[in-house]
């Protein structure tokens, strides 16, 4: 399980949920790990300390993904602290839902800033440090990019669908530089923000083919595959890890 030995990974929004699961899995496979957080300093440091206890280096950096300068500085700090940057996981996101008529400009702006601009900004900053070849950029999308089963998802669905175009465009641009770019679309996943025992969980799980929520570790496993040597020939892809939600 040392396929990522010697690699350095940065996960945005890595203090909980899928982001934390990705951080743990990449560290388990040998990577030193940097994670960003906005407000959850205690939880982010707990993740970092758990990774350190496993024998890997880890760092938690505060950065609001809506702030391009702060995000770029976090990427540069990761590379400067550990001497390189090989893997970027664009995980941080916000989830604003509601009727079109009620959506405020501030909600629209923040959703697009965090869910669309931030992955592009972080990718731009990260690729400067991926000069050895073999770099990996992996973004976390959503099953609702293709199937919005409830009203009120238009803004969020739009923001995640934008990542498809970004992934394809960057894959074509960065392929000659030895960097792959991929997108993982999780289905309903058991996290604090969307618990498998929540009020609408039974209905949501019923939209999948397997009839259940994913564990965050199941999403992280696909990210780890794309980040490792076995994922070297995969780029420009949108991979659904959604239990058949979009089947």
Automatic annotation (TrEMBL):
Coiled coil: none annotated. Keywords: Oxidoreductase. Residues 7-207 form the Ketoreductase domain. InterPro entries: KR_dom, NAD(P)-bd_dom_sf, Sc_DH/Rdtase_CS, SDR_fam. Its EC number is 1.1.1.-. One of its GO terms (molecular function) is oxidoreductase activity. SUPFAM superfamilies: NAD(P)-binding Rossmann-fold domains (SSF51735). Transmembrane segments: none annotated. It comes from the Bacteria. PROSITE patterns: ADH_SHORT. Belongs to the short-chain dehydrogenases/reductases (SDR) family. This is 3-oxoacyl-ACP reductase family protein. It comes from Streptomyces neyagawaensis.
């Amino acid at each position: 399980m040392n396929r990522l030995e010697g690699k350095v990974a940065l996960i945005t929004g890595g203090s909980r949920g899928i982001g934390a699961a990705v951080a743990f899995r990449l560290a388990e496979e040998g990577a030193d790990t940097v994670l960003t957080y906005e407000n959850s300093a205690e939880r982010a440091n707990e993740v970092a300390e758990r990774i350190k206890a496993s024998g890997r280096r880890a760092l938690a950096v505060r950065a609001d993904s809506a702030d391009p300068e702060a995000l770029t500085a976090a990427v540069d700090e990761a590379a400067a602290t550990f001497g390189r940057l090989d893997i970027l996981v664009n995980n941080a996101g916000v989830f604003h839902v509601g009727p079109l008529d009620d959506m405020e400009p501030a909600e629209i702006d923040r959703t697009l800033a965090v869910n669309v601009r931030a992955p592009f900004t972080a990718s731009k900053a990260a690729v400067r440090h991926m000069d050895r070849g073999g770099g990996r950029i992996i973004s976390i999308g959503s099953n609702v990019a293709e199937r919005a089963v409830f009203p009120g998802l238009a803004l969020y669905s739009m923001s995640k669908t934008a990542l498809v175009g970004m992934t394809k465009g960057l894959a074509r641009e960065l392929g000659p530089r030895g960097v792959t770019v991929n997108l993982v679309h999780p289905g309903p996943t058991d996290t604090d923000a969307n618990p498998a025992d929540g009020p609408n969980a039974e209905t949501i799980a019923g939209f999948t083919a397997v009839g259940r929520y994913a564990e965050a570790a199941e999403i992280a496993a696909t990210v780890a595959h794309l980040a490792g040597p076995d994922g070297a020939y995969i780029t420009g892809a949108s991979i659904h890890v959604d239990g058949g939600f979009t089947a």
